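Read as amino acids, tokens; as here:

___
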Amino acid sequence: MENQNINVTEEIRSLYAPNLFQNKVVLVTGGSRGIGRAVSISFAALGAKVIVNYMGNASAAKSTVEEIEKNNGQAIAVQFDVSQFNATQEAIKSLEKEHGGIDILINNAGIS
């Protein structure tokens, strides 16, 4: 699986300008697994700094961040539950202050 992600990163970079999202901050809710992981890796491959949101699986988030960094991307993992309005609001305020804003939101987290 590890080599597959490297190939995906290189394929993405070959299809688009590698710096397409340079200087952009992207928040991917549910960004540590499945589709969210793929989206996180893809935006990072195109130059974005990715905020990988997760609710409970810190090891999956850490793995996604490590994969991005291994391919010369920038990412951080941030834990908050998007179904909790106040916690989400506080997390967003903190992230905006720390990173100067969020340019793109991928609202991928599945909640019911």
Remarks:
- Residues 72 and 94 are 25 Å apart (CA to CA).
- DSSP finds four helices and four strands in the chain.
